Amino acid sequence: MRIISGAWKGRTLAAPPGLSTRPTSQRARQALFDMIQHAPWGGRDVLEGASVLDAFAGTGALGLEALSRGAAEAVFFENDPAALKTLRANIGACGAGERARVVARDVLRPGQGRAKSLIFLDPPYGQGLVQRCVNQLRADGWVAPGSLLIAEIARLDSVVETGSILAQRAYGASQLLVWRE
């Protein structure tokens, strides 16, 4: 798995052993960031200078890709010990320490935070966690008005009950949903 574009293009990202972490495929990440750059609701300014939240971060691939492409800073929520170790190593390998903060906590109990303009949600499949997570992030101040939210869910999971969906794309066993808060 590699960073696709930007300052760290080609940088290899590690994944933790086992099946507890399911990194977003490179193909899906490429398509997602192409959408962000070129869709009518997106554009260069969505990424450049963005304040990013990568929930259920795992390897950190989504947040690190955003940082590589010009996001100002990213907060990564992860609570699995093996994924945390890998996430921290990936942040170090990219030299992103100054712009990245890891929160070793369940994102369903994030605590008070500063609003982010770009939010990635990649929860375990089939547990209906996206809506619960968004509701809690909203309540705790992590979601800015006008934020762009992107969720990766199982292809067979029902669509999230939030905002108007701007884009919905299927990639293998997953689907990406994009909406604005």
Query: Radius of gyration from the CA trace?
Result: 15 Å
Major sheet details: 7 strands, mixed
Uncertain residue segments: none
The total of beta strands comes to 7
Rough outline: globular
The total count of helices amounts to 5
CATH architecture: 3-Layer(aba) Sandwich
Order of helices and strands: HHEHEHEEHEEE
Query: Cα distance, first to last residue?
Result: 30 Å
| Rounded mean pLDDT score | 92
Number of domains: 1
Could you characterize what this model shows?
The chain is α/β, with parallel strands linked by helices and 181 residues long. It has one domain: 3-Layer(aba) Sandwich (Rossmann fold), CATH 3.40.50. The chain is 28% helix and 25% strand. The chain contains 5 helices and 7 strands, in the order H-H-E-H-E-H-E-E-H-E-E-E. It has helices spanning 26-38, 44-47, 61-68, 81-94, 129-139, and strands spanning 51-55, 73-77, 100-103, 116-121, 143-154, 165-171, 174-180. A 7-stranded mixed beta sheet has the order 3-2-1-4-5-7-6, sandwiched between helices. Strand 6 (165-171) and strand 7 form a beta hairpin. The chain is globular.
What are the main properties of this structure?
single chain, 181 residues, alpha/beta, Rossmann fold, seven-stranded mixed sheet, globular
Short structural summary:
The protein is built from five helices and seven strands; from the N terminus they run ααβαβαββαβββ. It has 181 residues and is an alpha/beta fold.
